[in-house]
C-alpha cells in the first residue's frame, strides 16, 4: 500500500475530530485535509483545515481532491452521501469511502429503508407508509402508541413518538402540513412503538465482506433518565454489554448479512460504514434485535469512544473498502449472488472500555447562546487515556469559545465501564466549565445496572 498518503475528511463536528485523530495516527498518512473542519481539528497532527470548503459543495470537494492528488476521501456526515458525493468522486477515479447515492437511500429515505427490510425479511417494527395526512392520522390513532417518522433527512429530528391522539395530530401537522422538515415530510412512516434497550452496531464493508465494530450505546434525550427532547446524541460508551457476543452473531446473521446481500441483489451494493440503530426487544425466546434505523456513516458520538479503543491502523481497511477488496478473494461485484462474509481479522481493539460524555450549550437542542468562554481545557490536555474531541468550538484570541449546541466530547479510556465513568465524571469533566454548560450525569449507567454494579457516579 502507498505510504505518504493524503487523506481528505469531510465534516466539521466531534465525529470528524475523532476521525481526523484516528487517521492522522496512521504511519501511512503524511497529510490530512479536513473540509471544513474546526479550529481544534486544525491543530491535530499532520492536519490542515479548509474552512471555506463546505460539506455540501460537492463540486468544490471533488475539484480539491483531484487537484491536490488526494489518495483517499472519508465522508463524516450523511448529507453529502445522500446527495451523491461518492458517484461524483468515483466518476473521476478518486478513491472515497461511502455508499453511492442509490445505496445511501438506506438513510436518505425511511420509506425505502422500511420497504427494503420488509422485502428482505430483516426484523423491524411493523409499519405503514402514507402520503396523505388524514389517512396517516387515522392509522396512527388506531395503532397507539406509535412512532411517526418523516421520510427524508431531518437532522435527527424527524422521528416523533406518540402516545396520545393529540400527539399524533401535532406530529402529522408538523411533518406533513407545516412541512417543518421541508419535502422530507412528503411521506411518513407510521410504525409500531418498540420497547427494549437501544444499541448501535456499526460495520465496515466493501459490500460483501463485513467487519463488525464494537457495539456502542448512544443516549439521545437531552436529560438524565432519557427525559426531554431528542438530540444528536449526548454520550456513548463501548463495548455495550447489552450486545453479548452471541447477540452480535445474531445481528450479523439476521440483519447485516441480509442487508448487504439484499443491496447487492437489488443492484445497489452497499460500501462504506453501515450504522444499524437497534432496539433489543425482550421476548420469551430471548433478546431480539430489531432495526430502528440505518445510517450510512459513523455515529456521532458513537465513533468517539471507538477511536480510543481501536488499536490497529484503520487506513488500510478504509482503502480496501474504497477498492472493494476487503475480502481475500475477487471483488464483490464479480459475485453478486454470493453470501456476505464476516471477518474481524483486520481490526484489533484494546482491552477495556471507553466513554464519551457530550458537553453542550445550555438550551440545546432548543435555542442557546454561543460564544461562551470555555475554561479548563489546558488542565485535561495530556491526561493519560483522555481525549477531548471538539464538536463546536472556535479559537478567538487564544481563548476557546462555544460555537454550537454540542460543544465537546470528553472521551476516556480505561479498564472497564465503571472506571471510565468515574474518571470522566470525577477527574475530567469537573475541570471544564463555561456559562450554562449542560451534560448528562448518567452516561453509561445502563451498562452498570445491567451488571448489577452499584451506581456510585458522584451524583
Ligand atoms: P431513528 O432516527 O429512527 O433511530 O429514531 C430516533 C429515536 O427514536 C431512536 O433512537 C429511538 O429512541 C426512537 N424510536 C425510533 N423508532 C422507534 C420505535 N419503532 N419504537 C420506539 N422508539 C423508536
Ligand atoms: N448518534 C446517533 C447518530 O449518529 O445518528
Keywords:
single chain, 459 residues, alpha+beta, Dna Ligase, domain 1, D-amino Acid Aminotransferase, Chain A, domain 1, 4 domains, six-stranded antiparallel sheet, five-stranded parallel sheet, globular, binds adenosine monophosphate, binds glycine
Structural class estimated from helices and strands: alpha+beta
State the end-to-end CA separation: 50 Å
**Spans where pLDDT lies below 50 across 5 or more residues:** 453-459
Number of domains: 4
Overview of the molecule:
The protein is an alpha+beta fold and 459 residues long. It has four domains: 5-101, 3-Layer(aba) Sandwich (Rossmann fold); 132-186, Dna Ligase, domain 1; 197-350, ATP-grasp fold, B domain (D-amino Acid Aminotransferase, Chain A, domain 1, 2-Layer Sandwich), CATH 3.30.470; 353-458, Phosphoribosylglycinamide synthetase, C-terminal domain (Glycinamide Ribonucleotide Synthetase, Chain A, domain 4, Alpha-Beta Complex), CATH 3.90.600.10. It is built from 14 helices and 24 strands. It has helices at 14-24, 58-67, 78-82, 85-91, 105-108, 110-119, 133-142, 165-177, 245-265, 303-309, 315-323, 377-380, 417-428, 445-450, and strands spanning 5-11, 29-36, 47-49, 72-75, 96-97, 127-130, 146-150, 159-162, 188-192, 197-205, 209-212, 217-218, 221-223, 227-230, 235-238, 272-281, 288-295, 341-342, 353-361, 386-390, 393-396, 399-402, 406-414, 437-438. The strands form six sheets. Strands 12, 15, 19, 20, 23 and 24 form a six-stranded antiparallel beta sheet that branches.
Map the helices and strands.
Elements: E1 5-11, H1 14-24, E2 29-36, E3 47-49, H2 58-67, E4 72-75, H3 78-82, H4 85-91, E5 96-97, H5 105-108, H6 110-119, E6 127-130, H7 133-142, E7 146-150, E8 159-162, H8 165-177, E9 188-192, E10 197-205, E11 209-212, E12 217-218, E13 221-223, E14 227-230, E15 235-238, H9 245-265, E16 272-281, E17 288-295, H10 303-309, H11 315-323, E18 341-342, E19 353-361, H12 377-380, E20 386-390, E21 393-396, E22 399-402, E23 406-414, H13 417-428, E24 437-438, H14 445-450
Parallel strand pairs: 1-2, 1-4, 2-3, 4-5, 11-18
Antiparallel strand pairs: 6-9, 7-8, 7-9, 10-11, 10-16, 12-15, 13-14, 15-19, 16-17, 19-23, 19-24, 20-23, 21-22
Helix pairs in contact: 7-8
Residues 125, 147, 149, 159, 161, 191-194, 198, 220, 230, 277, 292-293 line the site of adenosine monophosphate.
